Amino acid sequence: MEIFKDFTFDSAHFLPHVPKGHKCFRMHGHTYRLRVVVRGAVDEKLGWVMDFADIKAAVKPIIAQLDHRVLNDIEGLENPTAEVISKWIWTRLRAHLPGLARIELYETPTSGCIFTGAQ
Ligand SMILES: [Zn+2]
Questions:
Q1: CA of 107 to the centre of ligand 1 (A)
Q2: Distance 19 CA to ligand 1 centre (A)
Q3: Is 107 a catalytic residue?
Q4: How far does the centroid of ligand 1 lie from the alpha carbon of residue 101, in Å?
Q5: Contact 97, 106 (CB under 8 A)
Q6: Strand ranges (DSSP E) for the chain?
Q7: Is the pTM of this model over 0.90?
Q8: Is 118 a residue whose pLDDT tops 90?
């Protein structure tokens, strides 16, 4: 079974490699929404895959590095597309969250990225 927990963070960014006329070349902000999906068996006694609080504990320190920051200033996020940010989060989260199956990063309510650790 899969369970998920959603998080939000507010960050500024710009995309340095797009043409200068592209709107994303200019500094702007997003309220990002991050969905963290964990897959596992439902524990027979507890009745859950994992305590949601454990997901929160693993994700919170990573969000703290991104929230109210200029993403371009963060090592590894010099070109902070949703794809690059997703990979950056996944790399940091994987070791701390057994069963991590997928993350979904929404840059806007209608645009985002799904990453499962592969391509
Ligand atoms: Zn943007």
A1: 7
A2: 14
A3: yes
A4: 25
A5: no
A6: 2-13, 28-39, 69-70, 100-108, 111-115
A7: yes
A8: no
pLDDT band at residue 28 under the 50/70/90 scheme = very high
**pLDDT at res. 69:** 98
24 carries an active-site annotation: yes
Q: List, for residues 29-76, the tens digit of each pLDDT value.
A: 999 999 999 999 999 999 999 999 999 999 999 999 999 999 999 999
Task: Output the average pLDDT for the chain.
Answer: 97
Measured CA to CA, the distance from residue 119 to residue 100 in angstroms comes to: 16
Q: The tokens of 39 are what?
A: 């897959």
Is the predicted pLDDT of residue 119 greater than 80, yes or no? no
In what order do the strands lie in the sheet containing 2-13?
Answer: 69-70, 2-13, 28-39, 100-108, 111-115
> To which residue do tokens 């200033």 refer?
73
Architecture of domain 2-115: 2-Layer Sandwich (3.30)
13, 30, 104, 107: the catalytic one is 107
113 catalytically annotated: no
